[in-house]
Amino acid sequence: MEFEKQKLTRPYIAVLLAAMVLYIVSCAPGALWQDSGLIQYRLWHNDIEGSLGLALSHPLYYILAIGAKYVPLGEFTHRVNLVSALAAAVAVANMFLLVRLWLGRNLPAVVAAVTLAVSHTFWFHAGIAETYTLWTALFTGELIMLLQYTRTGRVDDLYWLVLLNGLSMAVHILALIPLFCYIVFIFYLLAGKRLRIGDLIVVVLLWIIGALPYEYLIVEAMTQTGDIAGTLASAAFGTRWQGAVLNTSLSMQIAGENFLYILFNFPTPNILLFLVGCFGLLRMSSDRAFRNVLLGSIVLFFIFAFRYTVPDRYAFFIPFYCGVSILTGLGTYLLQDQMNRKAFAFLVLFFSLVPVGVYAAAPTLARRIHLNIGTRGDIPYRSDYEYFLRPWKTGYTGAERFAREALDLAAENALIYTDATTAAPLLLAQEIEGKRPDVKIISGAVNSKDAPRLDAQTIGQLLEERAIYVVCPQPQYCPKFVLDNYDLVQTGILWRVTKR
Predict the structure, then answer these.
(1) What CA–CA distance (Å, rounded) separates 206 from 225?
(2) What are phi and psi of 105, to 5 degrees?
(3) C-alpha to C-alpha distance for 128 and 221, rounded to whole angstroms
């Protein structure tokens, strides 16, 4: 076993370094829009809990990213974006190691790693401030420990498995899905007397230790509010997502969109290897315990993401894409001996990189056929086709450019009403660069310090005292009391509110 570890150290490091180069080069260099921008804003304020409910707190991610905030190299926003890039590189290297340990061959492991690395949604989140790549790094680590335990029976590997899952829980509540599978597996071990009660106690304690950052927030909220039921609901669903999390209905539109998400992540003939891998996994007789837990996790992740209804549900397919990558590696393994090895290896590796070309061409093709990708299309300095269809964010500074220009346009002591998409870049430009502190930013998500209340009762008096702007005149992004009672005059990239 020691020889095997030494044998795999160099290839693991090689994959890790290659993935690091890819993701560091393609990482966004600065401020970002919407959720990622709000993450950056939370990090700037060392806000570990957030305001959207405990399920969206992701405390371990924020603890690590706040640590990166204080590294005195480069720009703050770039540093916190790089947390996602480095975590993604670890996840890809872990994918290589998992499949290499499982199947014993390099080609399937490389194919699995590359398949995950260039899958659109994973790559997209590797270049922005988000939690999913860190969670994926921990989840792939869990699977490595699971494989090791099922092969060796060493309880230390099981200890590492539950500790990593606890840490995963402190990053994202998605960890509950594999946790359910692990619990079933542990009960199976107990029933077969392959796990002692003393070991079970250690397993529980290690999981609790791993999940401490999340547990601390839960206990703190219970202590402060005295509302146990409300706190548990917040920990499970956030402030307003219970219906989406528990959704059991499915429209044809959502189902069609979900299949397009999956197809866009794997636009390559190698998807046939995934199908071969599915068939092979069901027939596999070796490593049955690992196979069963892996299969259960993949199926549950797919079901959860497929019937989820939040607008950014495409991100919740990332754990399923890990399963696709693993099974693509298995399909490669099963066919490798039945083909000309050199030709097969060349074709499979070539097809693994086909998605990169697809993503490069996708914006042009989408624009040519006027494809509706479900985004706004009205954000200054953001071409949605390029921004969303190409996963790399190399050199992208649109959010910073928008913020600086909007603040330059505003009159002295003005108010700018914005939505959650554009609020964070404006606030970050003010607070990090010290730009136009006299201007107050107001949104439904976060506001400038000491910003006045803006509503139907206060807008008249405020308009007498100062200029008021909105970023977008569309009804879903501009208050109804403004659209119904006032005119909007375009002023550069902003719209000035004037009396009708």
Answers:
(1) 28
(2) -130, 150
(3) 29
Give this prediction's pTM: 0.95
Mean pLDDT of 98-109: 96
In 3D space, the residue among 122, 151, 8, 105 whose CA is nearest the CA of residue 331 turns out to be: 105
Q: Which two tokens stand for residue 357?
A: 């070309």
- Asked if 99 and 329 count as a contact pair (C-beta separation under 8 A), the reply is yes
Kindly write down the DSSP assignment for every residue of 4-31, as one continuous string. Answer: HHHHHHHHHHHHHHHHHHHHHHHS--S-
What single-letter amino acid sits at 452? P
- In 3D, which of 4, 300, 240 has the Cα closest to residue 292? 300
Burial of 343 from C-beta contacts in 10 A (0-12 / 13-18 / 19+):
exposed
At residue 497, what are phi and psi to the nearest 5 degrees?
-80, 130
DSSP for 198-242, written as a single string: HHHHHHHHHHHHHTHHHHHHHHHHHHHH--HHHHHHHHHHTTT-H
2-58, pLDDT tens digit by residue?
A: 546 668 999 999 999 999 999 999 999 999 999 999 999 999 999 999 888 999 999
Residue written as token pair 């402030």 = 239
Token pair belonging to 210:
């791993």
pLDDT exceeds cutoff 50 at 304: yes
CA 184 to chain centre: 27
| Per-residue pLDDT tens over the stretch 92-103 | 999 999 999 999
Answer whether 388's CB lies under 8 Å from 373's CB.
yes
- pLDDT at position 48, please? 95
Which tokens belong to 117?
């690395």
Q: Please answer whether residues 277 and 111 qualify as being in contact, where contact means their C-beta atoms are separated by less than 8 angstroms.
A: no
The whole-number average pLDDT for the span 326-352 is: 93
- At residue 466, the 3 state secondary structure works out as coil
Strand-pair partners of 327: none
Between CA 426 and CA 448 the distance in angstroms is 10
